[in-house]
Amino acid sequence: MGYLLIEMGVCLSMLLMMICVDSQSNERSLWIDGEHKIAETDSDFICATMDWWPPEKCDYGVCSWDHSSLLNVDLNNKIFKNAIKAFSPLKIRLGGTLQDDVIYQTQNHQEPCNPFIKNTSELFGFTKGCLPSSRWDELNTFFQETGAVVTFGLNVLMGKTVLANGSTVGAWDSTNAQTLMRYTVQKNYTIYGWELGNELSGNGIGASVSASQYAIDTMNLQTVVHRVYKDIEAKPLIIAPGGFFNPSWFKEFLAKTPETLNVISHHIYNLGAGVDQNLTEKILDPSYLDGVADTFKKLELTINTSASYASAWKGITVLLMNLDNSTSFDVKLSVNSTWRLHKHRSHTHRHHHHHRHHTTKHAHETKTGGKRIRIRTRQEYHLTAKDGNLHSQVMMLNGKELTINESGDIPSLEPLYTNSSEPITVAPYSIVFAHIPHFTLRACKR
Ligand SMILES: *[C@@H]1O[C@H](CO)[C@@H](O)[C@H](O)[C@H]1NC(C)=O
Ligand SMILES: *[C@@H]1O[C@H](CO)[C@@H](O)[C@H](O)[C@H]1NC(C)=O
Ligand SMILES: *[C@@H]1O[C@H](CO)[C@@H](O)[C@H](O)[C@H]1NC(C)=O
Ligand SMILES: *[C@@H]1O[C@H](CO)[C@@H](O)[C@H](O)[C@H]1NC(C)=O
Ligand SMILES: *[C@@H]1O[C@H](CO)[C@@H](O)[C@H](O)[C@H]1NC(C)=O
Ligand SMILES: *[C@@H]1O[C@H](CO)[C@@H](O)[C@H](O)[C@H]1NC(C)=O
Ligand SMILES: *[C@@H]1O[C@H](CO)[C@@H](O)[C@H](O)[C@H]1NC(C)=O
Ligand SMILES: *[C@@H]1O[C@H](CO)[C@@H](O)[C@H](O)[C@H]1NC(C)=O
Ligand SMILES: *[C@@H]1O[C@H](CO)[C@@H](O)[C@H](O)[C@H]1NC(C)=O
């Protein structure tokens, strides 16, 4: 899915869209404001997390992690490898609750390198655990082979004391992290960003760190990174706090870390816990989904009113979703902007990582204000659940099952080529990505 989402991410997600409803019919008009962008999204915004939880981690009576942790997942699994390659470059964040209790094995091998052991008296329900340097080597080889872009979450609780009410005292002891970083640099492993801590902002999960102490720890991280990467041109990003947004905490934290942070990260669980019986209803309820917009607005406001922050690592992807179970909609796309079309030509796309080529002819017409999009060929990707079962683990693309074949290869994602003058038909319970190639809207220009 990489190719398709990337295209969407770069251009259409920047556009403000308006849907006009004609209640008399199932026709909808979608106007794209090509003049104003509302957000920018990295072209490689697709991401995943590899967590630390051992198989003994259970929630709501289910032990769901099995051998999926970065300490024990099978890195030779062909399907896993192929999946990451298919998204290349996939951003992978290494982190999660237990990251703050990880000890990185050092070359001296003085201390034993023990795994996490379940113990309900301990913070987060497990003892401290250790990342063997041999596993760090294997992981980095794997990331190099699959073309992943890696962010590593560091153990900010190291050196701190956690009080009974969850608040913490003391500064981050960065010695162990610095050793890991030096080793990483020596081995030429590329780390895209070093992120400090996991879900400790505001009230935190299990434990919390005050904004002022977090700022001090983040400046310490910057010092360590500058020292370790002194002779290296491409510096990794400094990312924090990887926690829940809390306006006063974030405001103070940002005020105290000018010139330190490259990326502000925050976590949202807007759909609630995995055990929620109403999850399907929530996903299908647009007003529920809109609820999280408020958090993003407040975060944006906090960033706007803080000193010198260039960007926030967040984004919006626009796509057509039909959340109705029986009505099909016909959506007409229009653009109310001047836009530049590329020359009439035969164009060959090269799809990276899908190892295939195809040629399409685009007969483009020029321009402008208030007119329907006139490019003749559009690419459409219609996603539905197999047999209409929303809990199915099999997704259909343009009516065909998306499954790996017997060699464990990820299927290529073939669009439908449709006449751009026709409306897009969005079937019940479906998601549609429509890509109109080769034109530039003013809002999308850098
Ligand atoms: C396009 O439409 C939007 C929404 O109606 C409007 O805000 C914007 O000013 C329009 N732009 C142009 C160039 O007409
Ligand atoms: C669990 O941790 C507590 C507190 O650190 C300790 O006293 C206890 O011995 C541990 N239990 C086991 C089974 O290791
Ligand atoms: C937690 O306990 C400490 C020590 O008892 C106290 O100083 C601190 O204010 C408490 N923090 C919160 C958030 O209640
Ligand atoms: C790392 O890269 C440098 C410069 O390219 C090279 O001299 C060195 O041998 C490499 N080290 C390892 C462990 O690959
Ligand atoms: C699920 O939704 C129903 C009806 O909307 C509501 O009565 C119920 O409390 C919800 N359950 C949960 C666990 O949120
Ligand atoms: C933040 O600043 C940008 C750029 O100046 C502006 O477009 C946006 O409306 C501001 N957001 C908020 C929530 O104030
Ligand atoms: C569609 O929704 C209606 C009203 O909520 C319900 O009565 C009907 O059973 C649903 N149909 C399907 C196919 O889920
Ligand atoms: C599996 O799919 C890939 C990619 O589409 C293809 O190159 C390969 O030949 C297929 N293998 C088999 C056994 O069908
Ligand atoms: C595309 O659709 C328009 C409007 O329905 C029609 O006039 C035109 O002939 C179609 N073009 C092609 C190539 O089928």
UniProtKB/TrEMBL annotation:
GO MF, one term, reads: beta-glucuronidase activity
Where is the signal peptide, in residue numbers?
A: 1-23
Q: Where is the composition biased (Basic residues)?
A: 346-361
Q: Which InterPro entries match?
A: GH (IPR017853), Glyco_hydro_79 (IPR005199)
Which segments of the protein form a coiled coil according to its record?
Answer: none
Task: Output the Gene Ontology cellular-component terms.
Answer: membrane; plant-type cell wall
Keywords linked to the UniProt accession: Hydrolase, Signal
Q: Name one Pfam family in it.
A: Glyco_hydro_79n
Please give the residue ranges the record annotates as the region Disordered.
Answer: 346-370
PANTHER family registered for this protein in UniProt: HEPARANASE-LIKE PROTEIN 3, HEPARANASE-RELATED
Protein family membership: Belongs to the glycosyl hydrolase 79 family.
Q: What is this protein called?
A: Glycoside hydrolase, catalytic domain-containing protein
Origin organism is Cynara cardunculus var. scolymus
